[in-house]
Amino acid sequence: MHTADLYFQATQDAILAMQNMINAAESMGLGVVILGSLNDDPKRYLEILDLPEMTYPVLALQVGVPDQEPQLKPRLPLEFTTFENEYPRNFKVEALKDYDAKVETYYDLRDTNRRIDSFTKQISGPKLETKHLKRDDIIEALHQQGLALDLN
């Protein structure tokens, strides 16, 4: 686990295990929410969770009995998520105009947490800014745990 290669193998295994947990929970009528917010302040979460060396919280999962049946969020069209033989390099954000309209309608019409937002606003927000965010401390947090030490 001291190398990036082994760390990423373990991370991939953890993500696959989580997907299996989600499938099992949903097959029993339970609801799930994946929380990537652990990355918002990785060092603080290591402290809160009091994790030993060689461990790192990749994602969190909430599982419970749903008290509502939320609408399904529109998914990106296949043309933006599936590629053959090469990754397209000439992508223009304007190509997402139709999808943005669907996402805006979804947020506007859903039963809870209504907001006015679009996909392109979300992907061009704070995560892409050049100022330092606590999310940028992930590598330091991994090293603190003794993981991926070859990423210096």
UniProtKB/TrEMBL annotation:
Keywords: Flavoprotein, FMN, Oxidoreductase. InterPro entries: Flavin_OxRdtase_Frp, Nitroreductase, Nitroreductase-like. One of its GO terms (molecular function) is oxidoreductase activity. Residues 5-64 form the Nitroreductase domain. Gene3D superfamilies: NADH Oxidase. Belongs to the flavin oxidoreductase frp family. This is Nitro flavin reductase. It comes from Ligilactobacillus hayakitensis DSM 18933 = JCM 14209.
